[in-house]
Amino acid sequence: MKNKRKIFLLLSFLSLFVCLYFVSDTYAKYLTRASADVNGQVARWNIIVNNTNVKNNDTLTQAITPVFAGSQHVAANVVAPTVTGYFDLELDASAVDVSFTYNIAVTRNDDLRDFIVTGYKVDNGTLNNVDVSVETPTISDDILLTDTTRVHTIRVYIGWNDDTDTQELNNAGDTAVTNSLDEVTLDVSMSFVQKAS
Q: Within its chain, how far is the Cα of 74 from the centroid?
C-alpha cells in the first residue's frame, strides 16, 4: 500500500509538472513582445530670401539696395522729393514642404516720415496699392504647397511723398531733412507662418 501511494504521489507530481509546463508555454505565447521604429521625414523649411536662408538667420547677409531711376532734374539712385523707386525681394520656397503665409512689413524712417511704401507687385503682376496712412504697411500672401511656381519676386515701390494732402513735411521740412541726412533707411521685417492643415 505504501508503494502504491508513492507511485500515486510520483505520478501526481509528474502530471502536475507536465501540466505546468504546457500552461506556461501557452501563456508565453501571449507574452511575446515585439518592437519596431517608426520613421517619418521632417518637412523642409528652407525659405530663401535674396539668396539667404532665413531658417536660422535674423537678418539678410546683404543690405537691400533700392533702385531710383532719376530724371532730367534728379540723379539716379538718390532719394529726393518727388522721386520714386523700388527694391526687390526674391522669395524661393522650392525647398519648403508645407504651405505658408508670408508677411512683409516696411516701417517708416523717423527722420524722413515722407519716405514711404506706395505699392507692390508680385512677379510683374498687377500693381497693388498699400494703405499709406498706416505707420507700417504690410504685404501678405500665401505660397501653397500645390503652387507650381515656388519662386516669387516681390517688387516693393517706395517714394518721397510730396502730396500736399498726405505729406508730413512741407518744403522747409524737406530742405531741413536733406541738409541733415546723408542716407535714409527703411526697416523691412519678414515673417513666415505655416498654414494649418
A: 38
Burial class (CB in 10 A: 0-12, 13-18, 19+), 143: buried
Residue 194 · residue 99 · CB < 8 Å: yes
CA–CA gap between residue 66 and residue 89 (Å, rounded)? 11
* Cα torsion 39, 48, 120, 180: sign: positive
What amino acid is encoded at 143 in this protein? Answer: I
Nearest CA to 122 out of 162, 149, 97, 83 is that of: 149
The one-letter amino acid at 42? V
Considering the entire predicted model, what is its pTM?
0.77
* Residue pLDDT, tens place only, 115-149: 889 999 999 999 999 988 788 889 999 999 999 99
Confirm if 147 and 54 have CB atoms less than 8 A apart: no
Pairing of strands 84-96, 115-122: unpaired
Amino acid at 118: T
Cβ atoms of 195 and 100 closer than 8 Å: yes
